[in-house]
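Suppose a classmate hands you a notebook page containing two proteins, each written out with its sequence and a corresponding row of structure tokens. How would you begin to make sense of it? This section walks through that situation. The first entry is reproduced here exactly as it would appear on such a page.
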Amino acid sequence: MKARNLLLALSMMGSAAFAHADNWSWGDVSANYLDWSSRTTGQSGKKDFAYLELEGGMGGQWGELYGFFDLENPGKSGNGQEGHDQRYTTKAIARFNMTRIGDVPVQLYAHVYDTRGNEFFTQNRVLGLGTDLKFGNLTIKPFIGAHNELDAFGVNSGFNGWMAGYVLLYPFSAFGQSFLVSQWHETEFARKDKFTPNYNSHTGQNGAIALWWNVSKHFTTGVQYRYADQKLGTSVYQNAMIYSAKYNF
């Protein structure tokens, strides 16, 4: 169960690769440390944690696929104290090109986000439309779709409003080095009461902005500013820094 969605995403990637020989693809493994701000830990009780990540993607004229699998608190007990137990997080995103309006692609967009740990589980599913916009070196990939949620081992499940967001990528060079600015952002809106007992709003924000330094072909390091508001189980604004080192293959 823990890796079911990751295996599904990888099998989808493998099937697509077999059918489309002209695909591009990439992957990496990374070690990461998430350091919540003192205000966040004081107000929400969240704990800092380390995590290992396997990440990859591929694409072609047909669209693109992306996925990651995180092991949080590696080496710790799967049934330990809250905030110190192992957790597993998976996300798979699919964008399939359907048609074009002028130079702008219209894509079928779908994603599944799944996280689980000791007596905890939530899964978010989104199905809608997306596109892929390019302005020189800047790429923005917006989406909007219906949001379905399964929470707390089925205690609450079903339609939970809508989600809109984007991924932003901006590669650049400076001081003879290769860098990348990236951001992902999601806004949930028109959420249902049964899914929002801990929030003061039916709208929630969630995302991160990062600066990556491509030290070499196989090694990347970076720092991310992680943020959330009316999200992640609490109504307070939360922010953290994430420090990462990646091996690219």
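The notebook's second entry, a different protein, reads as follows.
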Amino acid sequence: MSAELQTQINTASDQMTKAIAHLEAELIKVRAGRANPQMFDGLVVDYYGSPTPISQVGNIAVADARTLTIQPWEKNMLQPIERSIIAANIGVTPQNDGAIIRIFLPPLTEERRKEIVKRVQSEGETSKVAIRNIRRDAIEQVKKLQKAGLSEDQATDAENDIQEMTNKFISLVDKHLASKEKEIMSV
């Protein structure tokens, strides 16, 4: 196999790995009934005019299975953090006691669990589409190399390798989705 062909396959593999990593990061943010500090990843608060992640303006801790606490390093950040959580519309209401913010996670109803599963399935489908797009781009590159002089056998072998790799990554997405769905639906 030529070096250019191997580079194309490696690039596709790296991009598919990144798509899986993105899916994992998104699935961590989905609330499955347990308190998880990562549900605030991506939330920003206005810190003296600059958007700053909540994790950089306070300490996020798990108090118990259904309670998170956020203790800001500066007391004047309580209100902006509270507003940021409310604006994010993640299904929780912060409670400010003047020193710390408590977030109580209500138990999930069956209906809410099914909504969350649909959202997880949607994330999975987005990842599968991304992986298929990477496959399409890689196969187009192989076809360009074939026009530039690559033998037909090598091109066919490379396309088969890319398809096998795609199947492997899509089955990995399915495993992640099944695991998260089981976690969400368990009471």
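A careful reader of the second entry would note: The chain has two domains: 3-29+109-185, 37-104.
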